[in-house]
Amino acid sequence: MNKLCVLAAGVWLLTGLTGCKDKDEPLPLPEEQDLTIQNYLVENEIDNATKSDQDFYYFPVVEGNAIPNSSNIISFYYTVKNIDGVVVASHTASSGEPIKAQRDTKTIYPPGLDEALQILATGDSYVFIFPSHKAYGSLEVSGDLPANSIAIIEVEVVAEESINQIRQKELQSINNYIGDFEISNNPDTVINLISGLSIIKTKRDKQAAEVPSSGTVAINWAGKFFSGDSFGSESGFEVNMGADEVITGLEAGLNNMRLGEEAQLLIPSEMAYGASVQTVPHSAGFQDLLIEKQIIPDYGAVIPPYTPLIFVVTVVEYQ
Amino acid sequence: MKLFKLIFILFGVWILCAETALGQKPGFVPPPRRKSSDLYRNPVRVMLNQFSITGTTGYGLAMYSHELNNVYFYQSQSNQIIVPIVDGEPAPTGVITGNSNWFNRSTYGDTLDLTNYFEVPYRPLDEPVFNPELRREFSMATDTMPLKFRSLSHSIPIGVVVHFNYQSFRAGAGATFERQYFTSFKPTTFKETIRPFEPEVSPVFFQRYFVTVGYKFYDFWSYSFAGEAQIGVLRGGGKIKGEQPIYDYAVIQRGAFFNLGVSIEKNLSEYFRVIVKPSFDYHTFNTNLTEAGIAIPHKQQTFFIQAGVSINIPDIRRCPLPSCAIQLKHAHNGNNEIVRGQPITKHQNPKMGQNHRKLFRYKWKNRNKIEPY
């Protein structure tokens, strides 16, 4: 009898220690937030919301007539709010040009938005309600949108372009630039490569040795957009030729240069950073935070998606 | 009447005398009663009986920790190195050289490229958002904020101790052999960024040789509680993949180790006891990074829980007569030597009911059988 009591006490203790659960224990965050979103929809009498397979809700504000094509690059405006409707960040028509992004290439942050944008076409304006794991996770966007918050992002797609359309537009910009440059500077040589890269040689030395296809080349470079804004420069920058370390446009340009020569490399986005990275919000401070948290690469905060670049390059030496 | 009374008394006296003299031959003188201390004991056995031999094994949880001070800590995707901070000199940049192992050997010469390959004009990443390649270089100077690493390793100890026992005091010497399995060292700060430090080690074989003192401070029925302290030397052996030694003793300086524990002993007999011993072990050592000119201090603290048996060599031998069924310590007629009637694992002078085997019907496997036989 005594043994039975001891055994029963042991079993009770074990089950008490391992199986005890607080009845008031909160739900896991995704389920709790799903409930919050459902309550939000009811309270705001939104009855046309749909829940996606990726755990976010969406409903249309304006529906355009275009058919979504996820391979196209979209231009859009956005407004980010918290669940209480407080605007955290916005980029609207009054703020300037829409921002671009290529969908389904994991170049958009937050990741939920990458999935959400795939259902949109030109003219569409949708509201997406993301649980925190599809929005900003443990990142604190601002005081109004702290870590692990539900985010509401309203997106208005204003334009859509195919890769070919963008390529043609960039080549047009490059040709215009060359035209203007030739008129004002009368450069020595302009080389147009079939890849779309153009090289304006501003200082030529036909006697100097060509840059080899392998080895280390030291260059001075200064980068700028076609708008004229500079995005960086460096002296004595070493390029390991053939190592695929730098953007293809820069290495291809150096392959057409000689020691001591100076040139402007007009690089289409396909040979530079292509879709790069697009973030919402796309403010510099927020992008710096994402870089610090190692969520996006550094170039994502410098080069917007589908942006042709100009590199002013001098070949200093090679080994 | 008086005569009748006298005859009756004389008859009674005669009866009593007859009763006491029954069975005795005329002139018998009984031998003097022998005391236990008068009986013969082998003096060597008596001396050896003062010693106990204890064998234990169990589990050890070792916590290693070290703090990086006054060094630059650099981390790339494939490497972690430290470089000493030199007053007045700027932090190194580009490709730097330093120590990649500061735990069990001084591995100098590993290089780390601090170049940020995610800046312009380096090539873009495919699928850049949350790309695992982005867990890139990390660096910090530990002159203002120390960087601490901790590791919890598991071990299996096997120990032997010989004690000399005097009343409640004990002193002795022993050895513990320990097979330890390392786990990686986790940082206590910047946990999301700094990867665990993984020195090149493999399961190590520690040998501890020590002297010990103890005092039995409490007895409770058949249980005894004794506090024990050990001090000794520790050395780690073993080779990595059968080639180089795990610990490079050219650069490692080990201090003594200290161990404090409580031995909980169940005395099954005066010669045999089962013990359970929780103890805490403290040890420090330094790894000298000779090329860098610095030393990294390490703490090695281990919690052991061990169980085992302890025996004393009996001061008397077992009764040599195979047919002897005497249960207590005894001496046979004509023999002056006291002998045991029990094996050393059982009560030597059992009371009624002690040392009995558990009946077959009460054994666990038979507990539910109506007819166990």
Description:
The complex is a heterodimer of chains A (319) and B (373). Chain A has 319 residues and is α+β, with helices and mostly antiparallel strands. In chain A, 24% of the residues lie in helices and 30% in strands. Chain A contains six helices and 15 strands. Chain A has helices spanning 2-19, 29-43, 111-116, 163-185, 248-254, 284-292, and strands at 50-51, 57-62, 73-82, 87-91, 99-102, 108-109, 125-130, 151-161, 189-192, 198-203, 215-225, 230-241, 262-267, 278-279, 309-318. In chain A, the strands form three sheets. In chain A, strands 1, 2, 3, 4, 5, 7 and 8 form a seven-stranded antiparallel β-sheet that branches. A six-stranded antiparallel β-sheet of chain A has the order 9-10-13-15-11-12, covered by helices on one side. In chain A, strands 6-14 form a two-stranded parallel ribbon. The longest helix of chain A has 23 residues, at 163-185. The radius of gyration of chain A is 27 Å and the shape is elongated. In chain B, the strands form four sheets. An eight-stranded antiparallel β-barrel of chain B has the order 1-7-8-10-11-14-15-16. By secondary structure, chain B is mainly beta. The relative contact order of chain B is 0.16. Chain B is built from two helices and 16 strands. Helix content of chain B is 7%, strand content 46%.
Overview features:
heterodimer, A: 319 residues, alpha+beta, seven-stranded antiparallel β-sheet, six-stranded antiparallel β-sheet, 6 helices, 15 strands, 30% strand, B: 373 residues, mainly beta, eight-stranded antiparallel β-barrel, three-stranded antiparallel β-sheet, 2 helices, 16 strands, elongated
